[in-house]
Every structure is written in structure tokens, then in C-alpha cells.
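Aim 2, interim progress. The first record below pairs a target sequence with its C-alpha cells.
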Amino acid sequence: MHNPLLSSGLIYIKLKGGIFKMKITFNDSITRAEEFVKTCNGYDSPIDLIVDNHYIVDAKSAMGVYAYAAGHTLEVEMTSHNPNELNRFIDEMREKYEVKRN
């Protein structure tokens, strides 16, 4: 289900190295950022937010996500060598954040 308080851009998947990336913007920063952090904490693999192509923040850290949630388009990156976890994360991101495949 698409969440109207979030918008997201295109995802792209690099098959070598098991990396999933997408862009996301939080329109209602605190509430949606909190939900996003909770979702990310459900995975064992590292998930990072890349802010303005410069800063890297742990997506499982509420304080880190809150610091950049408002007014920034964030790139979400999960690195996993577990294809089941990677596919589950991709499916969950698509379901919650209207991710479109490139």
C-alpha cells in the first residue's frame, strides 16, 4: 500500500555485491521516519541513508534519521549477501513507499 506522506524515486539494483538502492523523501518527517527506522531494524544486514551524496547515516538509528528526514531526499542503501533478505526488503519498500522499478 502506498503511503501518501512519503514519496520515493526510482530504485536500482546492483546484482554484484547484493546492493539495493532507492530514493525516498519524508513528507511528515518524525512520524514516517520513526516507521522507517522500525522497518529497517527488522533486518540483519546494514542499511544506510546517503544524504546529499555526502553524508552516510545508519538507517537503523532514530537520531540519525531524524536529523536528516526533513527537507532532504535520502538514498536508502541495503547491502546483503542473503538474497532472501534482500528480496524481502525490496518487496517491503515497494509495498510501503511506492517504489518504481527503473
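The second target in this work package is listed in the same format:
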Amino acid sequence: MRQIPFRAVILLVLCASAAVAADVKSDYDRSFNLANLRTFRFSDQSRRLPNDALASNELVTRRLHAAIHDNLLALGMEQQDGQVDFEIA
């Protein structure tokens, strides 16, 4: 039986992963001044639908909230409970 070289397997895996990579596009109003946004809050998560992926996986929800929270704080924004500039659903 002939052995497949390790490099060939790695190349095959890399090609396969590139073939299934997601194509991400964004669309937003480029004239909107994001510098005016300083405060944020997370919306009430208790109203999620049962088939919502985040509703069924609390661990992923906490990780996403933590990552978003940390990145926004690093940008100089502040989390508040009252009136805010934007709300994260």
C-alpha cells in the first residue's frame, strides 16, 4: 500500500478549507459618523425565539457578549443602562 505524503494531505486540507470559506459582505451608510457613538447597552435577551441559535446556547451568548463588550470598551465606549447612543440586540 502506498503512503500519501504528509505535505500532500496538508495541501488537500488547505484547499478544502478555502473552498468552504464564507464570503462576507457588509452594507452600511458610509456617511454616518460612527465617532458620535459613545454609549451602548445590550438589549433584553429574554424575548428570543426558541429556534434562535443564541437562545439555546448560553455559553456562546456569554462569549459573544464578552467579546463585543471588550472591543467596544477598547474603542473608548461606555456601557450604560439608561439612555444610550446604540443598543446591541
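Helices lie at 6-19, 58-74. This observation will shape the mutagenesis plan for the next reporting period.
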